[in-house]
Write a structure and sequence with these properties.
Distance between the termini: 16 Å
Number of strands: 10
Largest sheet: 8 strands, mixed, barrel
Helix content: under 10%
Structural class: mainly beta
Strand content: 25-35%
Shape: globular
CATH topology: Sortase, Chain: A
Radius of gyration: 16 Å
Number of helices: 2
Amino acid sequence: MPLIFSVIAYVLVYFFAQPLISPLLAVTNLAFSSNAGREVYSGKVFELVDIKEPVDETIPASSISFPKYGDQYARVCIEGTKVDTPVFFGDSKELLKKGAAQYIGSKLPGFGGTIIIGAHKTTHFKDLESVKIGDAVTIVTSYGVYKYTVNDLKVVDPKDTTAYDLGADHENLILYTCYPFNMMGFSKKRYFVYAEYTSGPVVDVSK
């Protein structure tokens, strides 16, 4: 099968299988005791290099190497904070020891939908509480640099499925962790940082 048809088939599965995935399991995949994230990953992670500054352009999906479950495919940092961590595709307990972890039922940057990324409040998202509305969030991938602007901050119940919209028709980013930040033991709430798309290449799934 020609490569282009393989890529198109992958993209179609990626888009149309998502609604069949149970919605975020009530954002409980984060292993949510305050001690769960204290073991910090010290192994080697993929470093992204030779990435240009963000530009508003369209890139074909066939030019992208899609991440497999467990791959580091990006890095996220937030201006004015200490948040600067690798992003892994998948949100298992093991991946959350390594860095931030993306829920696989959400979209990748550039695909025009909701991106949901979580990390432990004791390690990689420890400084998420310092984020302010208007702060810039940068996600660096192997295919482009994406900028988002924080537009809302919320404390939510982990079972509140209205806190996110996986079917959104516009690109948006949600970063989340356990709450309160200074409480030890099981955390009953989640802290959500919402950000709107500012810039970065748009992925054309038809190419």
